[in-house]
Design a protein that fits this description.
Two copies of one chain form a homodimer. Chain A is α/β, with parallel strands linked by helices. Chain A is about 40% helix and about 20% strand. In chain A, the strands form two sheets. The first copy, chain A, has a seven-stranded mixed beta sheet, with helices on both faces. Chain A has a six-stranded mixed beta sheet with strand order 9-11-10-8-12-13. In chain A, strand 5, helix 4 and strand 6 form a beta-alpha-beta unit. Chains A and B meet through helix 1, strand 13 and helix 12 of A and helix 1, strand 13 and helix 12 of B.
């Protein structure tokens, strides 16, 4: 049975997903029996289009590349102009990809999109940290109540397996803590500072490369890493953390002198997001610059790469290192979650 | 429905699995709805016992700890003395854990155990490299023909997710190469040599710690890593490699001078197992000492730890670092594979 997909939001990640689906259509059919169509795309700025038999995705990408609206779609019969909520409730999509912008304060409009999808008995796949960081447990309950899935691999370390690594290959292990480099921008800046470049120059470079936003506060002050710490703690350790539960400090205070001193002690400054359960069973969550010994796997993680060490009861430490961001990398996270939904559907 | 397990071979891994199952019985029931009994254990040296309603595993472990045979079992009605093949075919087990010794030349008796289990429509879970390195594709076909699973996570990097990482969290990516530290003994020796200790002293230490065998040839000369390279190439890259297809060299030629020279160039000697597809589509497999730049994630992997970098089309490099061996770590690989079988059964 064809998986019918609607994209809410058509920025980098949505376009990355479309590029992958176009180039891998045959491979996905042959290898996994996965047949799909993208039936709707709705974007606040770029317009909205719905075709119940599936859109010509190449035309959609062409329109965006040429600064045209999706309402200019001509490849076949379609309806245009539906807003996100109508697209979620009134199209024949069975998987909703929530790919709008991240708001870590209100979680909107993404959280409403998720709730509406679940109430309409549609699966949600998202890389949006807002709903996941603010309302994970609530949204998961609503999804389960409606017999659908809420999959969020892309919210942490793009498509590098983190949440799907725990749910499957680590099934049977208990995770009692983790420690990771969860923000690529700050790691890129710290790596450059170690090579002698100033904080300001590295920040400018990060902005030029698209790693950091024009207002880099979210990265530099550790808010982005904090959202990921909350998501990890709630998803893989069964916690119910809010932002007030995480001690947070960014990298703005790290000076060249501190970096030189660290080197002389065979250590390296890294912005580390971590959760550990202490002897009393209390769970402590932090985002802090930490001195990491060069012998630790996290010390060797340079540039915009991310890494995460899980502390497990049966396997000891398990570390995964990979891309933390990127159009295709995050697009893949969405694809992998859609394939996981397909796998369950297939076995039913 | 209860999963009924038979253990063929009752050495370190089998005992590790039993210890985990005893301590996690309630947790596995609550978290995953996994209910099980070990109905049979058959070991060439330690004896054999079968109880269709499940064995008292604590008594089995007690007997072994006290150098008694499993035939001395008294906890309930049972049959003793069945050999491995009769245990596979005549007990009510639905999952056979093949945990006998590794023979990389004949693959026996493990391969016959696997074939017999598949013909009896029973799943096989194993950490034995013999059948996997010599006959993977053949055995997989036989398993599929009989509608059962052949799961081998523990053959590479013990329970650290490798094969189950690719089959699931990396679904949708194509893997076109890998590069890894796949043998703990040689990595332990090289790490010690970097700190100034001689090869001979480190080898003796590795033997004392149980990392290396009394005859360490399999580790030192790269045969163990080669078996793992073959398994990885065949399972995750769809190859059909035999041992003759892998270029192999061990670490015996690495001298203290070479290690010092490497240091001065910001590199480090590692025994690397790798496969890459070149421009002509040819697949080159190697186990060789290689100079790894300190900036590469594999450089920071020290001691008996293992690590593997996958080269993927959508995510770039993804590296996983974790335990390469150990009683509980490998026992977990068997548990995780059994839980994967349970998950599929549950969804049917």
């Amino acid at each position: 049975m064809k998986t019918k997909i609607a994209l809410i939001g058509f920025g980098t990640v949505g376009q990355g997903l479309c590029e992958i689906l176009i180039s891998k259509q045959d491979e996905l059919k042959t290898k996994y029996g996965f047949d799909h169509s993208i039936v709707a795309i709705s974007d606040l700025v770029k317009g909205s289009v719905y075709a119940e038999d599936g859109l010509d995705v190449k035309e959609c990408l062409y329109l965006i590349d040429n600064d045209q609206s999706l309402t200019e779609y001509t490849a076949g019969p379609c309806v245009t102009g539906w807003d996100s909520l109508k697209t979620i409730t009134h199209t024949n999509a069975d998987v909703i990809c929530e790919l709008t912008f991240t708001d870590l304060v209100s979680g909107e409009p993404a959280s409403t999109h998720c709730r509406t999808a679940f109430s309409s008995k549609k699966h949600v796949v998202t890389s949006n940290k807002g709903p996941a960081a603010l309302f994970y447990n609530q949204l998961l309950s609503l999804a389960e109540l409606n017999g659908v899935q809420f999959r969020i691999e892309g919210t942490v370390m793009s498509g590098t397996p983190v949440l799907n690594l725990v749910d499957g290959p680590l099934t049977g292990c208990r995770i009692f803590g983790f420690k990771g480099i969860l923000n690529g921008t700050t790691n890129y800046i710290l790596t450059g500072m170690e090579a002698g470049t100033s904080f300001e120059t590295m920040l400018k470079k990060a902005q030029e490369l698209g790693y950091a936003e024009v207002d880099p506060t979210g990265d530099i002050e550790g808010f982005d890493a904090m959202a990921k710490v909350i998501i990890l703690a709630n998803v893989i350790m069964g916690q119910n953390f809010k932002s007030g539960d995480v001690q947070r400090q960014g990298i703005a205070q790290i000076t060249p002198t501190m970096i030189e001193e660290a080197k002389s002690k065979n250590t390296r400054w890294k912005l580390i997001g971590s959760v550990e359960i202490n002897k009393n069973g209390d769970c402590n969550a932090r985002v802090l610059p930490e001195l990491v010994p060069l012998s630790h796997p996290l010390a060797g993680v340079s540039g915009a790469t991310n890494a995460l060490t899980f502390k497990t009861d049966l396997l000891g430490d398990v570390t995964i290192v990979g891309a933390g961001a990127g159009k295709i990398e995050t697009g893949f996270s969405i694809l992998n979650d859609i394939l996981a939904i397909h796998r369950v559907k297939k076995s039913l």
